Amino acid sequence: MTAAPAPPTSVSALKNDRFLRALRRESVDRTPVWLMRQAGRYLPEYRATRAAAGSFLAMAKNPELACEVTLQPLRRFPLDAAILFSDILTVPDAMGLGLYFVEGEGPKFERPVRSAADIARLAVPDMETELRYVMDAVRTIRRELDNTVPLIGFSGSPWTLACYMIEGGGSDNYSKVKSLALNEPAAMHRLLEVVTDAVIAYLNAQRLAGAQALQVFDTWGGVLSPAMYREFSLRYLNRIAQELPRGDGDNSAPLILFGKGNGAYLEELAASGAEGVGVDWTVELGDAARRTGGRVAIQGNLDPVTLYAQPEAIRREVGRALDSYAAGNGGSREGHVFNLGHGMSPDMSPDHVAALVAAVHELSAR
Ligand code: CP3
């Protein structure tokens, strides 16, 4: 496989720049919309590509196939951004933990982090060798998108990656990772420091390969008490927001901090230096807009389960979310990126996604 050449990046040449304009809180003709996990098993064409590739990881590690599944939802729906098809667990995999998937059980690591000695061995992987397949996917997708919509790159948050690295997979109560944080906070901070260094290098490499916005998924920040959230998650989100270069001109990429269960911390997240904050559906969007006072763009936040309801109900809930945001933002829809409050599920209907995207664009037309 040959790496695609660096794309001729020109933000000004983007045919649809609503998403990037909204992140800068500039005026747009309609509220932009993209959906977390917009590429995935709910699309029959995704299931076909995955079956031909043999597995999720084979697909994610092949830049052409990763590009193909990235583009699939954009062929069906007028989404305002593409998101790199990959996974947050590529980084710990490249750190030597051995990522694999068990059908129906989700991600697992062959060599989870269990001791101070394991932590001492962790190092930042090289982005253009060990994670080359991700950067090649970004370059290939940028070439194929041909400046139609911007491409979002992403990473897990340090805390969320630590959860998988220490638990060795998904978890019901996060007992191992929380015990390490409570029993050996210095060791936990050493792990979070090196993972944060890796996240910053990973996001920066994606930007240099052509990603035009970057999102950090703090999926499990919300399982922490407030004191532990501030110590073990927010501290490292702040480091990323402060230290990650955003570039300039054609190579620039704003940063969005998404967190499930982050509603109690919106003022602090808005003060982090990130350009956008993503929220789940337990937050009233108008409150989010009021509490962050124009310091950041707000992304969200329809309950993903709304997609199981009928199109009329989806449309009504989309309208409610749009209007809630505007009510808290001085009557203006500016600075809002529409999304779900978390990712899509495999048994959702593509027709209902079409209804959602159409409702966002129609009900927000200026
Ligand atoms: O949004 C997109 O379309 C981009 C692709 C994307 C994937 N994973 C593809 C994927 C993104 C942004 C992720 C991030 C990710 N991965 C997160 C953070 C986002 C979130 O949902 O909170 C997390 C926690 C993971 C870890 C992970 N990877 C899980 C829990 C799973 C699901 C396992 C399962 O069986 O459903 C994965 C695998 C995965 N990543 C799939 C997809 C489409 C399903 C793979 C398949 O079976 O085809």
From TrEMBL:
The record marks D87 as: Transition state stabilizer. Substrate binds at R37, Q38, A39, G40, R41, D87, Y164, T219, H342. Pathway: Porphyrin-containing compound metabolism; protoporphyrin-IX biosynthesis; coproporphyrinogen-III from 5-aminolevulinate: step 4/4. GO terms for molecular function: uroporphyrinogen decarboxylase activity. InterPro entries: UROD/MetE-like_sf, Uroporphyrinogen_deCO2ase_HemE, Uroporphyrinogen_deCOase. The keyword Transmembrane helix does not apply. Residues 32-41, 152-168 form the Uroporphyrinogen decarboxylase (URO-D) domain. Keywords: Cytoplasm, Decarboxylase, Lyase, Porphyrin biosynthesis. Gene3D superfamilies: 3.20.20.210. Its EC number is 4.1.1.37. It comes from the Bacteria. It is found in: Cytoplasm. It holds the Pfam family URO-D. It catalyses: uroporphyrinogen III + 4 H(+) = coproporphyrinogen III + 4 CO2. PANTHER family: METHYLTETRAHYDROFOLATE:HOMOCYSTEINE METHYLTRANSFERASE RELATED, UROPORPHYRINOGEN DECARBOXYLASE. Belongs to the uroporphyrinogen decarboxylase family. Homodimer. Catalyzes the decarboxylation of four acetate groups of uroporphyrinogen-III to yield coproporphyrinogen-III. This is Uroporphyrinogen decarboxylase. It comes from Lysobacter cavernae. The gene is hemE.
